[in-house]
Design goal:
Elements lengths: L2 H4 L4 E9 L4 E6 L9 E2 L2 E3 L6 H13 L3 E14 L4 E12 L13 E5 L12 H20 L3
Parallel strand pairs: 1-6
Antiparallel strand pairs: 1-4, 2-3, 2-7, 5-6
Length: 150
């Protein structure tokens, strides 16, 4: 489609909730958009003809030089900001880190691994999308645990 034909269409993004084997999740600060400077999960645009799992792998590698194994899409959400003229459809993918987490000094200044038990410390500065993502992930995990009889 020509640029004028895509104007006003929603932007499709992939957000990855990445967990390592120690119970840490990957977070960072958004560098642009309505969530600029807020704490969020790795997120980026889905490229034409790119599989969602491939996009998650690419986005996380760009954020934190970390290799992941995407597990599954867990939900889709929509974000519309009329004033910022931003319309996003975001597919959240749960993924497991497959490479060792980089040390704090090896990561970009705005990227960090956070123990899931410490996520509450970031709630006031977390983007609405990331907060919604963690809430919905907790519902999925509870449902899976109940199904296993735990």
């Amino acid at each position: 489609m020509a640029e004028t034909e895509t104007e006003g269409l929603p932007q499709v993004e992939i957000a990855a909730i990445v967990m390592d084997d120690k119970g840490h999740v990957l977070l960072g600060r958004a560098l642009e958009g309505v969530d600029k400077d807020k704490v969020t999960v790795p997120i980026g645009r889905l490229q034409p003809f790119e599989a969602m799992s491939d996009a998650a792998v690419r986005i996380v590698a760009e954020w934190a030089q970390t290799e992941i194994a995407p597990q599954h899409a867990i939900f889709v959400c929509e974000s519309i900001h009329q004033e910022g003229q931003e319309h996003r459809v975001v597919v959240f993918i749960f993924a497991k880190a497959t490479s060792p987490a980089l040390s704090r000094k090896e990561l970009r200044e705005d990227v960090m691994w956070v123990d899931v038990r410490d996520l509450g410390q970031y709630q006031d500065e977390m983007s609405d999308l990331a907060a919604d993502g963690f809430y919905k992930l907790s519902l999925v995990l509870r449902q899976q645990a109940a199904a296993k009889g735990q």
